[in-house]
Write a structure and sequence with these properties.
Elements: E1 15-20, H1 26-37, E2 40-43, H2 44-52, H3 59-67, H4 74-85, E3 92-95, H5 101-113, E4 120-125, H6 128-138, H7 145-168, E5 172-176, H8 181-202
Length: about 210
């Protein structure tokens, strides 16, 4: 367990989303954030891989789509995610979901059915040049510059309405994701704490 000697009592029952382009380091930062604030890390990719290893009604469909390089159908993703959310306490970081405006609305519906709201959405902003550098360093066969740049382009096309939605709700926190990971994480925590304090003050809670 990571400890920096600080108390994060304000983080109790936090419901957060981490959004970032491929190579932005969002999963690394989500993991660090969860360890620092004692939150549950929910990564949809892991949920689907775990589901695929079971004998559930969804397992074969997940295997079929992934083996063909296709996206897992939305109804399966939502069903698996909703089931996971029903089993966790009211404190989590949702990593890499939602990616589209429709998924935003679906998530809103799921949380509303549980009487919940997101507290904050963290957008980890990294320049295209830095993402290209990071992904090329991995050395994967499919990590060619043209492919990476296309993935970045698709991300921004999908993410724009998502970020606008959360910005309009006043819960979007933009954080630069370049530099030392520990410093980035400290900045994320500072931004989230500032956001929480502001919400508490608006609601009349003592500081």
């Amino acid at each position: 367990m990571i400890s920096d000697g600080r108390s994060y009592a304000w983080a109790g029952e936090m419901k957060l989303v981490m959004i970032g382009a491929p190579g932005s380091g969002k999963s690394t930062q989500a993991g660090l954030l969860c360890r620092r604030l004692h939150l549950r890390h929910i990564y949809v990719g892991d949920l689907l891989r775990r589901e695929m290893a079971t004998d559930s009604p969804y397992a074969e469909r997940i295997r079929t789509h992934l083996s063909r390089g296709l996206l897992v159908p939305e109804d399966i993703v939502l069903a698996v995610l909703e089931r996971e959310l029903s089993t966790v306490p009211d404190d989590f970081v949702l990593d890499g979901f939602p990616r589209t405006l429709q998924q935003v609305l679906d998530l809103e519906s799921i949380l509303s059915g549980r009487g919940q709201l997101l507290d904050a959405v963290i957008y980890l902003h990294v320049s295209s040049d830095e993402i290209l550098r990071r992904l090329l360093m991995r050395g994967r066969p499919d990590d060619r510059p043209s492919v990476i740049l296309k993935r970045i382009e698709v991300f921004h096309q999908q993410a724009h309405p998502v970020l606008r939605f959360y910005e309009d709700k006043g819960i979007l926190l933009k954080v630069v994701g370049e530099g030392d990971p520990a410093l980035i994480n400290a900045n994320i925590i500072a931004r989230v704490e500032e956001h929480v304090r502001r919400l508490q003050a608006a609601a009349g809670y003592p500081s």
